[in-house]
Amino acid sequence: MNTPDTVSKDTEPKDPFPIPRKIMAEPDYIDDDNPELIRPQKLINPVKSSRNHQDLHRELLMNQKRGLAPQNKPELQKVMEKRKRDQVIKQQKEEEAQKKKSDLEIELLKRQQKLEQLELEQQKIQEEQENAPEFVKVKGNLRRTVQEAAEAPDS
């Protein structure tokens, strides 16, 4: 009486953990139409609602419809190219501003640079004098007094 169908069914082990059809229980607020209950609302994704994301998504969809593949550049390379473009644009703007300067402005800038250089030189000299040893300072004072004494009788 053992047919192949009945033998295979009897020899197969039964699964001790049957797979449940529904993992989560249904919430009870769906069945009740109680107006006092606050129903949960789906949270808004700030990324998807942002304007940049929408523009990017729209551009990707249009490129897909046209058959254009998106650029496969790494993000770092894109950022570096953008920085380089921005830097070139900034340099061009500065050059245009330089070209538009009048002769008076150019002359004033030259004088300002000369004054700044003189101030830096004076600061260096003062720092050297402050950092000089005591005997060098005394020797400088002696030279000045000797020169003053030599000039005094001549005049």
From TrEMBL:
<feature type="region of interest" description="Disordered">
    <location>
        <begin position="1"/>
        <end position="104"/>
    </location>
</feature>
<dbReference type="Pfam" id="PF06625">
    <property type="entry name" value="DUF1151"/>
</dbReference>
<protein>
    <submittedName>
        <fullName>Family with sequence similarity 107 member B</fullName>
    </submittedName>
</protein>
<dbReference type="InterPro" id="IPR009533">
    <property type="entry name" value="FAM107"/>
</dbReference>
<keyword id="KW-0175">Coiled coil</keyword>
<feature type="compositionally biased region" description="Basic and acidic residues">
    <location>
        <begin position="75"/>
        <end position="104"/>
    </location>
</feature>
